[in-house]
């Protein structure tokens, strides 16, 4: 039994806090602890403060993790709770992803007062999205649609939609479910036609490598299948040097000791796409992802992601 509260580091958005609370609840249930045995520490990140331009122009994914990781390394927090899709593929020395919670629904949600589906939007409709992947896939499916940069937390984006600033937006269904906002969804986009971001729907927990007491606490809530899927997807992303600067989709699934993976890369304007599927034993999760990344990188060739 720990002698002092376990300090959980998180961003301050409603979704980030919901994920931290879910982690706390699972730890309380696994160890018979009370809320008083935990302290949730809110840390403001650079990504939360930069709202006037795309993250791809401001420095990419690390903007949502840098300050939290510094707090881990300084010993100000004991664990950090993140959305896996926000995590860079390379972590600072001394830190590791040491647990994953069971993965939520990975699909993207279409939200609009004007149409039931993305395909049904009127000609020249305006869709708000801050994700280069979503922007590129929207443009590929509907070149006539105008896609505008759309930053802010979930509630901010929904408010902009309500005010009529855009005709539709796309958000991760997992996040909406965690916020109790599943009822705002107009329709869900099938992964066959709209591949999610690497790590979408998965909560990961980062801690100091080799911190035995913390690792022992996390072990009972760790979900091995999610770890296998994310190991493959993150290896794929690492081979592509993926960040917020590149439109990339990837999804691994596990069934009966076998892992299946589908990945794709797109030009930012949606004009060109390369995709592939791979399958193998779960033990080869990382190798499958890496090989898929190398193959797509070769298919795209030099300068594929240049705008």
UniProtKB/TrEMBL annotation:
A cellular component annotation (GO) from this entry: cytoplasm
Residue(s) carrying S-(dipyrrolylmethanemethyl)cysteine: 244
Cofactor detail note: Binds 1 dipyrromethane group covalently.
Reaction catalysed by this enzyme: 4 porphobilinogen + H2O = hydroxymethylbilane + 4 NH4(+)
Coiled-coil annotated spans: none
PROSITE patterns per the UniProt record, alphabetical: PORPHOBILINOGEN_DEAM
UniProtKB keywords: Porphyrin biosynthesis, Transferase
GO MF annotation, one: hydroxymethylbilane synthase activity
NCBIfam families (alphabetical): hemC
The family this protein is said to belong to: Belongs to the HMBS family.
Subunit description: Monomer.
Alphabetical list of HAMAP family matching this protein: Porphobil_deam
Function (record text): Tetrapolymerization of the monopyrrole PBG into the hydroxymethylbilane pre-uroporphyrinogen in several discrete steps.
PANTHER family (UniProt xref): PORPHOBILINOGEN DEAMINASE (PTHR11557:SF0)
Misc: The porphobilinogen subunits are added to the dipyrromethane group.
Name assigned to this protein: Porphobilinogen deaminase
Lineage: Bacteria, Pseudomonadati, Pseudomonadota, Alphaproteobacteria, Hyphomicrobiales
